[in-house]
Amino acid sequence: MKIELMNLLVNELNDIDIIKDMISKYDDMPEENIKKILDSAKKCGYNGNALKLATDKDVLEKRTVEEQSKLMEALKECEYDDNALRIATDSDVLEERTAEEQIKLMKALKECEYYNNALRIAIDKNVLEKRTLEQQIKTGRRVIL
Fold first, then answer.
1. Which of 58, 75, 117, 126 is deepest in the core (most CB within 10 A)?
2. How far apart are CA 137 and CA 53, in angstroms?
3. What share of the chain is helix, strand, coil (3-state, %, to 5)?
């Protein structure tokens, strides 16, 4: 990672552990991608959950930079809720759903007021494998009624 990007991280962030995590995970990433991710994080006010999303190993491996930015934007719309973050970073969801489907799940969870049982349905491996997104959302909504 270029020194100027490391300086940018140090100047923008206060949490040394997050800075270390970003430096180690972004080391082999193209500079342009790093800038895009940091720009998305900045738009989120460097919120802690947005930064967790920005450094999540599975997200970095399974989503494009553009998809990561969209997930951060959706997380912001979900008030950076911990349960919305779990949908954004869950390895099974990342494997079984597209980024657009993840965002729909996050928004549906918000409509369910981030209810824990709706989250369980959103990240359940069996549900992810055997149900369509629409069935999954419908089941999640039924759980809170």
1. 75
2. 22
3. 80, 0, 20
- From first CA to last CA, the distance across the chain in angstroms is 50
91 by Cβ neighbours in 10 Å (0-12 / 13-18 / 19+) ranks as middle
Q: What is the pLDDT of residues 45-85, one digit of tens each?
A: 989 999 999 999 999 999 999 999 999 999 999 999 999 99
Burial of 16 (0-12, 13-18, 19+ CB in 10 A): exposed
pLDDT tens across 102-114, in order? 999 999 999 988 8
Q: What percent of the chain has pLDDT over 70?
A: 93
pTM of the full structure: 0.88
How many whole angstroms separate alpha carbon 111 and alpha carbon 78? 10
Q: Determine the Cα–Cα distance for residues 33 and 59; give it in Å rounded to an integer.
A: 14
